[in-house]
Amino acid sequence: MLADDNATATPGPGHLGRVRPQDLARALGYGGLTWLLHALVMNNDGVWGLQRYLGWWPLPLAIGCLAVALRQLQVVATSATMAVAGIVLLLVGSSGGFFLVFESVFTLVLWGGARVSRAAEHGSLVLTALLTIVMYFVTGSAAISVTLALVAAMVLMMPAQWAGNLRHARELAASEARTAAAMDEAAAARSAAQAAEHERMLVTERTTMAREVHDVLSARLAAIALQSGAALNAPQNPALAARAMDEIRAQSVNGIEELNTMIRMLHRGTPLAPAGSLGDVPALLQTYSGSGLRVAYRNELPGRGSTLDAVTQATIYRTINESLVNFAKHAPESELSLSLVPRDGSVLFSASNPVAAGSPGGAAGGHGTGTGLRGMRARSAELGGSFRISTANNAFAVSMSLPTGHRPPAAAPGEPALPLGHAPAQLNEGTT
Fold this sequence. Notes:
By secondary structure, the protein is of the alpha+beta class. The protein is 59% helix and 9% strand. The chain has a 5-stranded mixed beta sheet. Mean pLDDT is 77; it is low at 5-15 and 408-432.
């Protein structure tokens, strides 16, 4: 039989839909071998008196070789054609029928569907056994039966086992290729997930730093603007001007130090420490009320909130600071009310000021970029709290509820937390 030149092909279903040059060469090879056998008068005996039709051998041979050439178009049909043509050749006495029967079994096992391939592989074994048994009962000769068994094994069982081994090897290679592809996809997915997580962390860090810079600069610059405005509006009051200049210098120095602290933390990669506490609120209020703003502050928390953890106090401090900045920017002619009250295991902070009808101004800002509002909302969300804005009844109000059970993460060993924007309070709180 001709060597299998399809050893590198991938087995597929029964219908493959293409004609290959290798199959055409195989068909011509079988035709040439059969012609050579007839030229050398190497034929077998015909049966049932059909040997008289031996002269017609080119016809079934041509049909069988055509089926070999076209076997990729329809595996089952062409294999059946090969088998019928091969049997006809054997019946009339042409040895070329062995080639076609061999190729029929080989094609079914190698190129047929999974069920067809298994059936052909098992059927070749069963058919070999049946032919041997039938021959023994017909002839009663063990020698003839064994001879037929050997021939049947070479024509039926050998191509089935050969093609089966090729098919199994190819399926294993395909399975390994799929596994490798799946592993590559999984590795690519892990890489993409890591890149996305890295990008998310960068975005989070940038957002946090933007919020911190906004809080520091807006608070300090707003205080400087208020104090300088107060000094410019009272040129005949040297004492007020001196106090304003002292406050402007203090705010400038503190702001520079806070920015330097953030830069140092960025270089070291350490997290920003909680900045500000409820004890610092009176001094913060004095900075704004000293420039003429009307601010009312009420703190009804037990112990004035001193028992709250540092992160919660810093969040409230930053929210009060942002409310004062926006109030001074958008509604300085009205009065800002700030309050802290306990509420069902939480701390409720409220800030409100009246606004004229149709005016967008308020403690949270009307014409600004919204950075302060987003910062307030983000800080409350980080602690599992809630944040709301209201503009009902000609008043602008913000409210924030924070759970009191939050505890800040411990600082890493050897990395003490550095305060950001911490200014010791010197005044008792009250209404200013």
